[in-house]
Structure prediction request, 266 residues.
Amino acid sequence: MYPSHVRQPAVAGLFYPSNADQLKDQVLHFVRTAAPHPNHAILRALIVPHAGYTYSGSVAGAAYHRLQQSSKSIRRILLLGPSHYSCFDGLAVSTAHFFRSPLGDVTVDRSAVAQTLEFPQVHMIEHAHSHEHCLEVQLPFLQCVLDSFTIVPLLVGVATAASVAAVIQALWSKDSLVLLSTDLSHYLDDASARRIDATTCRKIEQLNSTQIGTHEACGAYALNGLLQAAESQRLTVHTLDLGNSGDSTGNRQRVVGYGAWSLVAG
Prediction:
């Protein structure tokens, strides 16, 4: 057993409020003010941004508004995102039994983690998870819209779409949702960012798993794997929101792109 079985928050008070009441109020505001989308199809996956809530919270809210409509059927979240601080090949899992946020502890499905380690591309890399924000910032949203759930936290390094898709497919049960955390283009002017992000959006809508690069989405390796898995299941993609940091800050000279998509069956 490792010294701590709880993964502590790394960006509470930085990316989102550390005060539980303030955090809950902010998250619920983003979810409640999101535009509604049709919910007749079965929700299988969501793609969401992972910046500080001031910048991407409203776009993330669109995805979680859609999840709230399907909350009763979801029991496990396959949580994937890019590694910003550690370089490695394949996918990384953590030793933690719980991931903590100011709203409480989220249980890690350790049996599912053990299942992922049967794949040669999956490794136990604790330090990759210690300071990573892309999965952590999703936890308060999940805690506000779901009653009871577990997570399978997976960071994706340099990996082929097929290697990521294989892990997703192995764990993608009827009561499991894939939640993929990624931002889009980085530090371009507003016009350039909107042009590139619109192209990325079309690729996502078309389930194009071969052409999205890391200059288009920081989570490209994970994203391409999800799109390949989704194509094999013949899912349909709906764009829920698309924007950038300039929408909230007013600074159009150097922006980061954000998008939210739902992947549905039926």
Summary: The first strand starts at residue 6 and ends at 7. The chain is about 35% helix and 25% strand. The two ends are 43 Å apart (CA to CA).
